Automatic annotation (TrEMBL):
This is DNA, SC009. GO terms for molecular function: transmembrane transporter activity. It comes from Aspergillus oryzae (strain ATCC 42149 / RIB 40). Its main location: membrane. It holds the Pfam family AA_permease_2. It is found in: Membrane. The chain crosses the membrane at residues 48-70, 99-121.
Length: 128
């Protein structure tokens, strides 16, 4: 596990250093309607299709990271509820028979994520 953190820190640092070298004009990057990462990739490749293909790599990593975080969070809620540590513990400790996963705990995790997402989208006054 410690090796994974070290490798992630190293590769992330290399990625950020490369992005900083090819960023171009920082005001163009910050004010871009396409988003800063896509603007940096457009500036570096001078090709829209290439920039979009390169943008897919971190997006795929983001999707897989989101899946693993949702899985971990729902399993932690399930284990905490199974041990009687939550209100409505019997409800959240239930494992779906056919799917074999704690569906109620996953629904709670999804609901919390949606609520935080709505706060982020709904108010520009709340610092993110």
């Amino acid at each position: 596990m410690l090796t994974c953190v070290g490798i992630g820190t190293f590769t992330g640092s290399v990625f950020l250093i490369v992005l900083l070298f090819v960023a171009g004009d920082i005001t163009d990057v910050v004010s871009s309607k396409a988003g800063p990462l896509l603007q940096i990739l457009l500036h570096a490749t001078q090709n829209t299709a290439g920039a979009i293909c390169l943008l897919m790599l971190p997006l795929v990593c983001l999707v897989f990271a989101t899946l693993s975080v949702m899985t971990t969070s729902s399993r932690m809620i399930f284990a905490f509820a199974r041990d009687g540590g939550l209100p409505a513990s019997r409800f959240f400790a239930h494992v779906h028979q056919r799917l074999g996963l704690p569906l109620n705990a996953l629904a709670l995790t999804t609901l919390v994520v949606i609520i935080f997402g709505l706060i982020f989208l709904g108010s520009s006054r709340i610092p993110n």
